[in-house]
Fold this sequence. Notes:
This protein has helices spanning 9-27, 67-76, 87-103, and strands spanning 31-39, 42-50, 53-63, 109-120, 125-131. It is α+β, with helices and mostly antiparallel strands. The longest helix is centred in the first third of the chain and has 19 residues, at 9-27. The model is unreliable at 1-7 (pLDDT under 50).
Amino acid sequence: MLQGKKAGKKNKVGAWGELITASQLKKRDFSILSLNYLKKWGEIDIVARKGNTVHFVEVKTVSYETRRDLDRAVTRGTWRPEEQVHRFKLRKLYRTIESWLMEHEYEGEWQIDVAAVRVVPREKYATWQFIENIIE
Length: 136
C-alpha cells in the first residue's frame, strides 16, 4: 500500500489505481518523482517526468463487481472517473502544485494529466486511460 493511505476499501481501490498508473507511466518512459505528495491543503497522486516536462497526475479509480459490469458501464458511457476532476479539485491541485514547484525550485514546463482507472478487484482486472494536459 502507498504511504499515507488509510486501509479502507475506497482507499485500497485508489491505491491500486495509483500503482497501476505508476507502472503504466514507467512503461511509457516516465520517471516517477513522487507518489502521494501531500500538503495540508491537497495531494498530488503522482509527480512524474518525461523529457523536459513534469507531469502532475491525478488518478481517479472506480471499482466494479464484475468485468461485465465494467464493460456495461463503458458501453453506456456511464460513470467516467475522469469527470471527478472538477473545479474544486483543480483549485486544490493548483495550490499543491505551487508548493511542489517552490520546494523543488522548478521553473520548467509542467502539465496536469488525469489517469482514469477502472478495476475489478475480484478478477484482478483493470483498464487504464491517460488523458494528457487537461488544462491548456
